[in-house]
Amino acid sequence: MKNESGWKNKSKEKIEHIFAFCEEYKTFLNRAKTEREAVTCIKEYLIQHGFKEETHAHKVFRINRGKEVIAFSRGNLSPEEGFNIIVAHIDAPRLDLKQSPLYEDVGLAMLRTHYYGGIKKYQWVAIPLALHGVIVRADGTSIHIAVGEGSDEPVFVIDDLLPHLSRKVQDEKKLSEAIEGEKLTLLFGSMPLADEEKEAVKKYILQVLNEKYTIVEDDFISAEIEIVPAFKARDVGIDRSMIGAYGQDDRACAFTLLKALCDTNNQQHPCIAIFTDKEEVGSEGNTGLKSNFFQIFLYDILTGMNMKNDEAFMRKILFLSRALSADVNGAFNPTFQDVHEKQNACYLGRGVCISKFTGHGGKVGASDAHAEYVGEIRRLLNKEGVIWQTGELGKIDEGGGGTVAKFHAIYGMDIIDCGTPLLTMHSPFEVSSKLDIYETYRAFKAFLNS
Ligand SMILES: [Zn+2]
């Protein structure tokens, strides 16, 4: 293993190519700030590249409730030889509006939130935020909204306490307790409705909402509004070698998977790309990987190929399949080095990261890939000249994390974790290396073609 920067081996032309690839990635990140928006982008790209919703097509995709996509591309070999499967997720940590979010206090209109996934709450105060989502009205009609992205649009913010007054209520507390979940309330407006005595600001806000979106207060009950950072993806570093953006976990892998799938033609094994939802909350729910959507999709594909599709046959195929759990990994942090074990950490700029196992101390909850399968992936990446590294998430007793690998391991297929290293992971502004993004794409393409 050469533990060195992957940039060392790249020519000037290659670097230009990587930078151009990442411009497209940044556009994707800016357009896909929620799982629903990611689905819209993925669908559009799949259609442009010959994927159809018809079961009999050679390239098929299906959408589950606007939040999850599975795409399939036929290979030269029969599905009986097994699929090459890559799973990435398109949900990201964020704040969701509560179902009764709006209230007025001290002349300000506020929105209550409930955070989604693993966030450090203090990172979400005092930054510009945008609202994205869908509202279903009482009559069943719905409206998609996105406010806070255009430079002429308003943004929203969660108030933080000035340092002059925060000594007792924040500074002397533990970092994790300084901002409580219930305090993540969004500043939404401050202008009162003329000639109104009670809750005049709230009433004016409701009037604005009604004029703009034809909604009433109760419509929030059947709404899914996500609050995400309002910033755009930006180059990071004076050399522009990195990207800072919200939601790179796991849209880094979702984007590179989408590109790899659409650039793969005439491959041996049939390929499946899964862009799943709800990974950040344990893959629960009917758009998460634990739902039956995947099996139903398989049933459809096999029907489309005029093949047997009974339960036993499908189980056998899945048992013979090979998979990558495509998810990001925490890169070695330059300022908090103590949480990592240097020899087994992954590093920014050293290529796509392969993790034999994830989980917590003692490999609890881990899907641990077999040496034989690791060897197979290793040979493949080396053969294709992909720049890669191995990485374990932090020191043994420091914490840990899991991915969807274990849910697909249940089918008996071989699966290994493979994805892009990130700095400031799970923060509103995660940082990746452009080189690692590109090598992630190359690794996925090599795998789909193998
Ligand atoms: Zn993830």
Based on the model shown, name its key terms.
Aminopeptidase; alpha+beta; 450 residues; binds zinc ion; Aminopeptidase i, Domain 2; 11 helices; seven-stranded antiparallel β-sheet; 2 domains; eight-stranded mixed β-sheet; single chain
Largest sheet features: 8 strands, mixed
Number of domains: 2
CATH topology of the largest domain, by name, is: Aminopeptidase
Cα(first) to Cα(last) distance is: 22 Å
Strand order of the largest sheet: 1-2-13-3-14-20-16-18
Architecture per CATH nomenclature, i.e. the level-2 architecture of the largest domain:
3-Layer(aba) Sandwich
Q: Which ranges are low-confidence, i.e. pLDDT below 50, for 5 or more consecutive residues? A: none
User: Compounds present?
Assistant: zinc ion
How many beta-strand segments? 22
Please sum up the structure shown:
This protein is an alpha+beta fold and 450 residues long. The protein is built from eleven helices and 22 strands. β11 (234-236) and β12 (242-245) form a beta hairpin.
